[in-house]
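Example 161.
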Amino acid sequence: MTKVAIYPGTFDPVTHGHTEIIHRARSLFDRVIVAVAKSRGKAPVFTLEERVSLIERVLGDLPGVEVCGFNILLTDFSRQKNATIIVRGLRMVSDFEYEFQLASMNRHLAPDIETVFLTPAEHYSHLSSSLVREISGLGGDVSQFVHPVVVSALQEKSKWR
Ligand code: COA
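Predicted structure in complex with coenzyme A:
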């Protein structure tokens, strides 16, 4: 049976930490859907379309991986996509409480969908999209954390802010 996994997040913007998890998930499952949440509550700097497009450009033509935006319940979107596994990255102990809550609630909403956690490589464990945005916005170099297309997109955004 084809194992379809969904990797949800806000990806504002996608970092090397995220892409590493996507590659790792792809090696475990037949198909991986990168599900980009609208996340209105987080007031993302990049629009949903921009976030989807950046991930597509960063990943290139990666077989078995699809990038989609969504603005509904994750469990409903997972069902629409026939995904039975939710993949989340667990960076540090501080992530655990929130991730545990999210996984428990998703299990409550959809007992047939399992959440699995992957740990990023050690050198990405301190990485977050908001830190990347802050460093870039203050003129710092983020090229070791994000793909060159994301570096350019961040520079372009900061011109207008
Ligand atoms: N490498 C680098 N950074 C990572 C990372 C990794 N491997 N994994 C997570 N992060 C960072 C993100 O960059 C983000 O950083 P930021 O907050 O500084 O921007 C942070 O960790 C967590 O963000 P993210 O992984 O994008 O999760 P989220 O909390 O924004 O998204 C959703 C959570 C989208 C999965 C959740 O809100 C959701 O499912 N929404 C859909 C609606 C729904 O179903 N709600 C009910 C849920 S029970």
